[in-house]
Amino acid sequence: MTKKWFTETVASTVSNLGTSTENGLSSEEVKQRQEQFGANELQEQAGKTVLELLAHQFMNPLIFILGVGAIVSFFTGHLIDAVAIGVIIVINVLIAFWQEFKAQKGMEALRDMAAPMAQVRRNGEWMDIPARDIVPGDVLKISTGDILAADVRIVESNRLSIDEAALTGESEPVDKTADALEDGHIGLGDQINMGFMTTMVTSGTGLGIVVSTGMQTEVGHIADMMANTEETKTPMQERMDTIAKTLMAVALGVVAVVCVIGLYHGMPWLEILNTGISLSVAAIPEGLPTVVTIVLTMGSTRMVKSNALAKQLAAIETLGSTTVICSDKTGTLTQNQMQVMKAYDASGRNWEVSGKGFSPQGEFKPLSHSTDVKDSPEMMQGLVVATLCNDAEYLQDGDKSSVRGNPTEGALIVAAAKAGLQQAEMLSTGGYSIVDKFPFDSSRKMASVIVKGPEGKHFLAIKGAPDVVLRNASGFMVNGEVVANQPAAVEGNLAVAANPAEELVASYEAAIQDFAHQALRTLAVGIRELSEADLKRDPAELEKDVTILGLYGIMDPPRPEVRAAVDSCYDAGVRTVMITGDHALTAAAIAREIGIIRSEEDLVVTGSQLDDMDDEELRRICPNVAVFARVTPEHKLRIVQAQQHNNEVAAMTGDGVNDAPALRRADIGVAMGITGTSVAKDSGDLILLDDNFSTIVKAVRQGRQIFDNLRKFIRQALTANVGEVSVILFAFLFMGPEVALPLTPLMILWINLVSDGLPALALGVDPEEKDLMERKPRKRNESFFSDHLGTRIVIRGLTQGGMSFLAFNWAMNAGLSANYAQTMAFAMLVFCQLWHIFDSRSFTTLFRKNPFTNKSLLGAVAVSATLSLGVIYTGVGQFIFSTEGLTASHLITVFLAASLPTLVLSGLKEVTKIKFV
């Protein structure tokens, strides 16, 4: 178990690690520890080589069968068939290889985040060394702008704050202390005397003693989880694997039947092999992997226009299967911009602040009173204080506004700008100047500045924790006048003089509580006039006898469009769960506002509570939890796994290093494109280019539409395969093995890839169904063939194969050549499929779907028919495919007869409402 260094005092830390803050480690101690602990770097597991990746693609059952078919075709003299099948194999293998090759990333970005150099004390001297040479016990100098090179226990802190957002999810820099902490069950975000590898120092200086290096650091634990977290197959990949295995079994079964019949009739082995090749080619939709990839690519292109970039194509369809979205709070559900939402002035008035983000457009709207903010002396004076006692910068570039500095201070700067106050103007032309600054520290819990005003008088501008400011307050400003805050005078047991500010104190405390209940981060502002003598006094003495001006309630508010997006998910049967490193109260308030918490039954669970649960209990409560707060990377991974064990299809959003293991484990990892670290982006399957939760909902819609269109394509493709297999089997069974096969392998390839493949590809852009976002999500184990689709494929395929056999049988009995009869069977199957495609694009019947709503499909059908007629009537086509030109009457008869399976069965379904036909 990892030692809880945050509970240790500085002295015990130094003692346990055998070091000294004055001298550091000796050269001998460093050498021993380097041998014991190894290099301070993250270890990367070796991935698959290029050859291993390439070889892996041939494990696909479809590719295996086609490979056998190509080999047999070659050795039996069917060279054209062998080459055609070989080309199909190469195309499918290269596409699959490229997708997997691009996905093999991860640790490189994590390693890039580490600091290259560090300053440590050894043998009593400060020296710069490569970060990889650091060992536990080293004394590390910490300065503003540094990236910490290891996990350290802070032993000296001089106004030190560290940005740990990528590791903990906290949007605010964390103020650090050297004091030991008593609670041994707190998460990383609350370990305020620790510094962690890869985090950045935003202000101040300090010293830290290295307690962990390399894979033993918190980032190392995350790296280890990433290396050992199995990337789950997407539901579509699982479904495609099932289809491949099913088709393989069917193909082998059909070939076995043919072999038995052939041997029974005494057929030569060469003929049996020839028939087996035709059947295996007929049973497999050779274009399936390629067309699926193309359909997903088209979907990916559409999604990019909606600000969602898919890294792995298979993940696109997964979105449509999603049953639960585990979403980070900061920047995804919220605006990632701290803003003043509410204000309270010392006169007892409450204000709301409108306007979005850093824009100066907005106003202070009074609640239950009509005073304008500029007519409120205490509010305007409070904003002057908030602006001057502030290290953030308000930047404007044309119409664009931004803030540089601490997010909370930035919120005050923006609020002041909405009231017409800007620090730069106040200091340059407004007559104000800063004389001295007393920055915030954790012991005083306030910050202040000495200001010289336009009239030449000095005053102290103070901001800080509301309870501390009240403790140091001597009065409240009410309508521009100071009301004294002093204890009631008591003589004996009788109060002889009341505190004139008693009601103001009660109102002030009530406002603090009200802001806290709304999960607002609260700051108070005050002012004190100074004499010349005061200018030389210590800040601890100056920050007393303060006149309170007001309070500001600050938070990172929800994105305006998120509520509608969460509601849309809810209507579609998709639960949204907030998983955040923030405090439970803040997270719960946001969750209620945007509709994630919808009833009293929705639970809020903290990381410390998760630590007390085993995996079984976590799985049990998951369906009722709306918010997981104050969580660690391990917690996030456990939550995703628990959702998956409950048979949920889980999407996980995140932007930090701490999110990477969960992003990798989730069925679909969604990384933030703007605020996301490179580690998160490498671990995710989808990148939100706008960091917006509503974009996920758009992607869910796209995913569902893609799944619908893939089912339409699979229906069309497999119906053709059933038709091809059945026409060969019918001829074999009813006409005997000595008769020529109705279709050659090359004819079958043409139907699968061109005459049927092109129109089927156009199904990938079919308009979405009307009930798309009203359906419940599909179950993880739901097959492509659910809702009687498999039955419909078999029935339609058998009828088409039967029509093709009848055409072939008629031609042979009419004394026409074998090539002519094969051409009749070929043409019949081609036109059967072209008719059938209009029925494939509907989950009801073709009579309920306007054929002109997909013009791409109409064009593809026309092109397919033209090319197939070219195979029949051109010299090149006749030479390659052994076809003969059909007479006009035969062609028209075939075209009309080919419509019967679709029109009759669709009509029967329309009248009887029987779903399986």
Shape: elongated
Q: What is the number of helices?
A: 34
Rounded to the nearest angstrom, the distance between the terminal CA atoms is 62 Å
Radius of gyration over all CA atoms, rounded: 36 Å
SS content category: alpha+beta
Low-confidence stretches: none
Largest sheet: 10 strands, mixed
- Helix proportion: 40-55%
Mean pLDDT: 84
Query: How much strand?
Result: 15-25%
Number of E-state strands: 29
Describe it for me?
- By secondary structure, the protein is α+β, with helices and mostly antiparallel strands.
- The protein is 47% helix and 18% strand.
- The strands form 5 sheets. Strands 10, 11, 12, 15, 16, 17, 18, 19, 22 and 23 form a 10-stranded mixed sheet that branches. An 8-stranded mixed sheet has the order 8-29-28-27-9-24-26-25, sandwiched between helices. Strands 1, 2, 3, 4, 5, 6 and 7 form a 7-stranded antiparallel sheet that branches.
- Helix 10 (269-283) runs antiparallel to helix 26 and helix 29 runs antiparallel to helix 30 (818-840).
- The longest helix is centred in the last third of the chain and has 42 residues, at 693-734.
Key structural traits:
single chain, alpha+beta, eight-stranded mixed beta sheet, elongated
Ordered list of secondary-structure elements with their pairings:
Elements: H1 10-17, H2 27-37, H3 50-56, H4 61-75, H5 79-103, H6 107-112, E1 117-122, E2 125-130, E3 139-142, E4 151-163, H7 165-168, E5 174-175, E6 194-195, E7 200-212, H8 218-228, H9 235-264, H10 269-283, H11 288-305, E8 308-310, H12 314-321, E9 324-327, E10 339-345, E11 350-353, E12 364-366, H13 377-388, E13 393-397, E14 400-404, H14 407-418, H15 423-428, E15 433-441, E16 446-452, E17 458-464, H16 466-471, E18 473-478, E19 481-484, E20 489-491, E21 494-497, H17 502-517, E22 521-530, H18 539-542, E23 546-555, H19 562-571, E24 575-579, H20 584-594, E25 603-606, H21 607-611, H22 615-621, E26 625-629, H23 633-645, E27 650-654, H24 660-665, E28 668-672, H25 678-683, E29 686-688, H26 693-734, H27 745-755, H28 757-762, H29 789-813, H30 818-840, H31 855-873, H32 875-881, H33 888-897, H34 900-912
Parallel strand pairs: 9-24, 9-27, 18-23, 24-26, 25-26, 27-28, 28-29
Antiparallel strand pairs: 1-2, 1-3, 3-7, 4-5, 4-6, 4-7, 8-29, 10-11, 10-23, 11-12, 13-14, 15-16, 16-17, 17-22, 18-19, 20-21, 22-23
